[in-house]
């Protein structure tokens, strides 16, 4: 079921609601007209009469209708709506920008200009595909994040207000009073709250739709991890981070029994928390719906056994798209191990020394640090060093943006030394494009050709039926040929 306003099937929603089927959690919301509350399909409360129910594709659509979140099932804790929900590329991009805070400081008009459309047209697209206006989507995002911080952390109210993008304590209090009909402090006392028990840092639980192949994603990251920047144990991933000049580190662990990852944040101001959570969700692909991917790809005899073997395989994203772009250039025509060696040299030579935790001593170099650096000293050829210089300058000067996969590809291909493989790889991991497809990749062409490599053109044609999830096919085929990727 695609989360588009006109496409919700009431019969399917009825069955999922009555069964409290967790597979539909976050894919639609139940509005109870008699109480003015909206719930998740898994809400434990007694089911209301069918006549009193209305279904909504998103929490924002329910909020637009004047409903408030249920305090029992906590809609704010549901797995996120997939970033590709809806059929409009403009809406997908707008949702990502809103998720990154575009409407916290800017207007809808500015957002529309950035997207290359008029504000009225953007409103029409949101009404069609999301069921709510951009402003309501942003307000719901702020409110849900604030509610989670209220329930799951010991942060003071002012910090929660700033972290969730309200800008002031007054606006934060007013929003909670309007939506929940009580003040945030009162709500914190009433809800079941488990305070942090560790010595420092902030800890949050990030839900996903099972199944989730943590082992494969962990192995993918481990093979590419940069010592000093990233640290992996058997059950965790940690790295240094810098948000608006604020330096700290994060750690992510898997909670299989709870269908969630735990995120531990250390050393950052509360105002950076929403950015951190958004980036981690993208990096670990927590909004994906494996069932949607499986429906499209399971008909292909090449992919069918791979889907059975790893039904929860995710698209491995990136903490920082610029970092991935640089590392993609470093990895051109060399093995994963060789690319990792180059990246490690780059970090130790040009990265910022921070030593925030055991094994975490460097920040990956910022664009300004690489724009004019002599990168031949780490063993790169002059041409490859020049490509990274130009890439860094374009990012530093704002000429290269990573929020639109199509525009990103075009901008990357204009840089000498960057070809189709690199552009698609950066779109896949840096921009989180689920349909990115590096057809020139030799491993993919060999896997699809049963050992005899297809041409890139034949590979693209072979993958047409995998749209719009071709990036997931890439991950499956790479994972099925681990020796070739080392």
CA-based shape: globular
Largest sheet: 5 strands, antiparallel
Estimated helix fraction: 40-55%
Number of strands: 11
Strand line-up across the major sheet = 5-9-8-7-6
Query: On the 0-100 scale, what is the average pLDDT?
Result: 90
Count of DSSP H/I helices: 24
Poorly predicted sequence stretches spanning 5 or more consecutive residues: 1-6, 195-199
Q: What Rg do the Cα atoms give?
A: 23 Å
Helix- and strand-based class?
A: alpha+beta
Strand proportion, as a percent range, falls in 5-15%
Span between termini: 38 Å
Notable features of this structure?
globular, 11 strands, 486 residues, 4-stranded mixed sheet, 5-stranded antiparallel sheet
Topology (SSEs and partners):
Elements: H1 10-19, E1 29-32, E2 37-39, E3 53-56, H2 59-64, E4 68-69, H3 89-99, H4 102-105, H5 108-115, H6 119-129, H7 134-152, H8 157-163, H9 169-180, H10 184-190, E5 202-207, H11 214-224, E6 230-233, E7 236-243, E8 246-255, E9 260-266, H12 273-283, H13 290-297, H14 304-309, H15 321-330, H16 336-350, E10 352-357, E11 360-363, H17 367-370, H18 382-396, H19 405-413, H20 420-429, H21 442-448, H22 456-462, H23 470-480, H24 482-485
Parallel strand pairs: 2-4
Antiparallel strand pairs: 1-2, 1-3, 5-9, 6-7, 7-8, 8-9, 10-11
Helix pairs in contact: 3-7, 8-9, 15-18, 15-20, 19-20
């Amino acid at each position: 079921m695609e989360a588009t306003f006109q496409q919700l099937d009431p019969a399917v929603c009825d069955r999922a609601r009555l069964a409290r089927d967790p597979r539909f959690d976050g894919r639609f919301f139940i509005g109870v007209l008699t109480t003015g509350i909206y719930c998740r399909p898994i809400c434990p409360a007694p089911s209301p009469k069918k006549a009193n129910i209305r279904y909504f594709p998103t929490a924002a659509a329910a909020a637009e209708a004047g409903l408030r979140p249920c305090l029992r099932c906590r809609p704010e804790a549901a797995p996120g709506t997939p970033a590709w929900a809806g059929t409009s590329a403009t809406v997908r991009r707008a949702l990502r920008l809103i998720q990154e805070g575009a409407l916290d400081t800017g207007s809808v008009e500015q957002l529309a200009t950035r997207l290359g459309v008029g504000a009225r047209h953007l409103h029409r697209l949101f009404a069609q595909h999301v069921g709510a206006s951009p402003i309501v989507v942003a307000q719901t995002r702020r409110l849900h994040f604030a509610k989670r911080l209220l329930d799951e952390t010991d942060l003071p109210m002012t910090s929660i207000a700033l972290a969730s993008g309200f800008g002031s304590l007054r606006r934060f209090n007013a929003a909670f009073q309007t939506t929940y009909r009580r003040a945030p402090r009162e709500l914190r006392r009433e809800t079941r709250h488990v305070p942090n028990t560790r010595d420092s840092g902030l800890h949050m639980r990030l839900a996903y739709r099972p199944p989730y192949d943590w082992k494969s994603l962990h192995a993918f990251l481990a093979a590419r991890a940069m010592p000093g920047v990233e640290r992996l144990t058997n059950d965790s991933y940690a790295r240094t981070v810098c948000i608006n000049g604020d330096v700290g580190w994060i750690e992510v662990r898997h909670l299989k029994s709870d269908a969630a990852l735990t995120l531990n944040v250390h050393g950052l101001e509360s105002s950076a928390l929403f950015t951190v959570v958004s980036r981690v969700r993208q990096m670990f692909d927590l909004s994906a719906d494996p069932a949607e991917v499986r429906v499209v790809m399971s008909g292909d005899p090449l992919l069918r056994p791979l889907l059975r073997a790893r039904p929860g395989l995710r698209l491995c994203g990136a903490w920082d798209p610029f970092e991935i772009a640089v590392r993609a250039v470093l990895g051109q025509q060399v093995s994963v191990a060789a690319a990792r060696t180059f990246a490690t040299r780059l970090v130790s030579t040009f990265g910022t020394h921070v030593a925030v935790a055991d094994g975490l001593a460097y920040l990956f170099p910022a664009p300004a640090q690489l724009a004019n650096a002599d990168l031949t000293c780490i063993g790169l050829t002059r041409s490859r060093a020049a490509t990274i210089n130009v890439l860094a300058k374009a990012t530093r000067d704002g000429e290269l943006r990573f929020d639109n996969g199509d525009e990103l590809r075009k901008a990357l291909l204009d840089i000498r030394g960057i070809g189709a493989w690199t552009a698609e790889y950066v779109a896949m991991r840096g921009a989180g494009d689920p349909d990115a497809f590096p057809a020139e990749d030799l491993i993919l062409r060999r896997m699809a050709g049963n050992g005899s490599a297809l041409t890139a053109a034949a590979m693209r044609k072979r993958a047409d039926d995998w749209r719009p999830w071709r990036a997931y096919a890439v991950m499956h085929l790479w994972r099925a040929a681990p020796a070739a990727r080392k």
